[in-house]
Amino acid sequence: MTSTSLEPAIQVSQTPYQTRSVRFLEIWDWMGWRIKVYGLNNPSPALIEATKIKARERLPIPAVNGERYGVGYMIVHAGAVGDYGFINWWCLEDIVQHHMYGARKGQPLQYRYPEGAGYCVWELAVCWFERQAWVETVLKEAKATDFSAYLERRMNEDV
Q1: Domain total in the chain
Q2: CA dihedral sign of residues 142, 145, 149, 151
Q3: Domain with 74 in it
Q4: Within a domain: 124
C-alpha cells in the first residue's frame, strides 16, 4: 500500500519565523579596504571587534590590484545559539569572496572552512541587498572606478 501523505518526514521549525534587525554600522577603513559593516540582531561591540580582528587576518593586501577593488561588506550576526562574522569582498568584476567565522555563544570565532560556509535566511537578505547595490552602481556603469555610489547604498531594515 502506498501512502499519499505529503507530510514532511522531519519537522523544519519548532518556532515561527521572527524578523531580525539589520543595521548599517559604519564604513570600516583599513589598509586601503573600505568595508560596509552591518550588525544583524544587535551584535555586541566585542563581537564587532572580534570580526574586525578576523578580517585583518583574512583580507588580502594590497586591497586594490588587478583583481580586487578594495571594497566589500561585513556581516556581524548575534545569532540565537551562536555568533557569526562574515567577511566579503568584490573581485573579478562580479564575484564576491566569502569567508565565514562562527562559534557558540561566548566562544572565540573560528574559520568555518572546510566544514562549510553558509548563510542563514537573515544573512542572505544582506547578501541580496549588496548584490543589488553592486549591480546597480558598478556593473551597470561602464568602466566604473569610483565605488562611492556603492558604498553609499546601505541597508537598514528588519528582515
Answers
A1: 1
A2: positive
A3: 21-153
A4: yes
